[in-house]
Design goal:
Blueprint lengths: L12 E2 L2 H5 L4 H4 L7 H5 L3 E2 L10 H14 L7 H13 L3 H4 L2 H11 L1 H8 L20 H10 L6 H7 L3 H4 L10 H12 L6 H14 L5 H4 L7 H9 L23 H17 L14
Antiparallel strand pairs: 1-2
Length: 290
């Protein structure tokens, strides 16, 4: 298993897909050889913004704390801990987070050992964990989980969502998740214990997505109009924010929360959909139905 890079740059940077590809070797994917950090540092580009949120030190400390906290357990459990803290440390806009080059550099230049630890403990790491789409790349998937499942400044729904691996593995790919009441209503079913397993999450996701073809969730359960100012103020406050707490959850942007009535309405609707959804392995009743 590889260890911390011998050289960690002071600042996050941008690493193109083309340049990233040449450093994703079989040795790295098998956890047997690290990334030539000095050589990689020569092909990166600076971020278009400056300031505290570009510093690599807090990110490096965060992934090391995650590995220490969950060493000896299942690395998958680290997702729920790391996702909100990664989001609150980076303080990115969605536009910034959509740049794959940032995630390439974080995975290969700052924390390749974390990617191997998290995704390669039992088998070879998939290359997409280093350089891949947002729902696959090791750090991008965590950031987007936190972004799409938080409720304003409240990261607790993110912790619940990350607690079932099929949420980032499947639900994160659904367009309907971009509607906050929909995402939070699905989390509500997990919080109440109605949906607990990966198979049940998959069944719920399919049912909710299929229903969205005929039922416009944003019409029957509207969200508040999003105001970009709290998010911008949160990003600007990064200069004086300090490290995120380890034992308590950090606070996200002070945006207005999703309307509770919309979340409740959809949670009730999704519960009905889930009751009729085929779940692989669910015991059939006397009528031969799931």
């Amino acid at each position: 298993m590889i260890h911390k890079p011998a050289y960690v740059p002071e600042r996050l940077a941008l690493l193109s897909d083309l340049n990233a590809a040449q450093y994703i070797t079989d040795g790295l994917l098998n956890g047997k050889e690290g990334v030539p950090a000095i050589a990689l540092d020569k092909v990166v580009e600076p971020l278009p913004h400056e300031g505290a949120r570009t510093a690599s030190g807090p990110l490096r400390e965060l992934v090391e704390d995650a590995m220490h906290e969950y060493e000896g357990g299942k690395p998958t459990q680290a997702d729920a801990w790391l996702a909100p803290r990664l989001h609150a440390t980076l303080r990115l806009s969605r536009r910034e987070a959509a740049d794959r080059r940032l995630w390439n550099h974080l995975a290969l230049g700052i924390a390749p050992d974390y990617v191997v630890w998290r995704h390669g403990k039992r088998s070879k790491v998939a290359a997409g964990r280093f350089r891949g789409p947002a729902d696959t790349q090791a750090f991008a998937r965590l950031w987007w989980m936190a972004e799409l499942f938080r409720n304003g400044p409240d990261y607790r729904p993110v912790v619940t969502a990350c607690g079932v691996q099929d949420v980032p593995n499947t639900l994160l790919r659904l367009d309907v998740i971009d509607h906050r009441p929909t995402a939070l209503a699905m989390v509500r079913l997990m919080e109440t214990g109605a949906v607990t397993t990966g198979r049940e999450v998959n069944a719920l996701g399919k049912a909710v997505n299929a229903s969205a073809a005929t039922l416009m969730y944003d019409v029957i359960a509207p969200d508040v109009e999003r105001d970009g100012l709290p998010g911008q103020e949160w990003i600007e406050a990064s200069e004086s924010a300090g490290p995120v707490p380890r034992r308590m959850l950090p606070e996200g942007p002070n945006e207005e929360r999703a309307p509770g009535s919309s979340v409740e309405l959809l949670a009730d609707h999704f519960a009905e959909l889930f009751a009729d959804a085929p779940v692989r392995g669910r015991v059939a009743d006397e009528d031969g139905e799931d």
